[in-house]
Design a protein that fits this description.
Elements lengths: L3 E2 L2 E14 L1 H7 L3 E4 L2 E3 L3 E7 L5 E7 L5 E4 L4 E3 L5 E2 L1 E5 L9 E2 L1 E2 L5 E4 L3 E9 L17 E10 L2 E17 L1
Parallel strand pairs: 11-14
Antiparallel strand pairs: 1-2, 2-5, 2-16, 3-4, 4-5, 5-6, 6-14, 7-13, 7-15, 8-9, 8-15, 10-14, 12-13, 15-16
Length: about 170
């Protein structure tokens, strides 16, 4: 991704490096397993996360239960690379679906996503007020992280998941 900033271009590689969840979710749905670069799964959900911009993330979530899975985006948070916590803006992300699964639904106002059994939803998440990247020099961005926190609700119980993205490569050019 390229951004013009004071006659400089910023080049990033950003990866989903870790997913955390509560111990209650782990007891009920098993431990999260890394399935490869940016993919994690447990008994509740299969998660793919990717981005090329540290101010947004795209998720593909696949419901692995026999129940409806819900995400109330009003309870979600985006912790940016500067450590500031903000509410999120959610946009359904169109494109080809993985493994031929049918699409979950996100309300037009972006407040709730519902994913039925064996469905997937592709969603773009960003901070609500779209903060700008401040001027940067050298390698100060490499290693920085940002987090997206949201509850996954199934059978009336809510489980908090934390998705941690890391800037693994960074450089500037003029």
């Amino acid at each position: 991704m390229f951004f013009s900033l004071c006659s400089e271009y910023l080049h990033w590689t950003v990866e989903l490096t870790k997913v955390k969840k509560s111990s209650l979710a782990e007891e009920r749905h098993g431990a999260l397993r890394s399935m490869g670069r940016g993919e994690f799964e447990d008994g509740l959900v299969k998660i793919s996360g990717y981005t090329n911009d540290p101010m947004r993330a795209v998720f593909v979530l696949t419901n692995k239960t026999h129940y409806d899975l819900k995400i109330d985006w009003r309870k979600a948070q985006f912790v940016n690379i500067y450590g500031r916590t903000r509410p999120v803006e959610v946009t359904p992300w169109s494109g080809p679906w993985l493994e031929g699964l049918t699409e979950g639904a996100t309300r037009d106002d972006g407040t709730l996503t519902e994913i039925k059994h064996a469905q997937s939803a592709r969603i773009r998440v960003s901070p609500a007020d779209s903060p700008q990247i401040r001027r940067v020099c050298g390698d100060e961005m490499k290693g920085r992280t940002f987090e997206v926190l949201f509850p996954l609700e199934v059978e009336g119980k809510s489980y908090q998941y934390v998705f941690i993205f890391e800037i693994t490569r960074f450089r500037t050019t003029i």
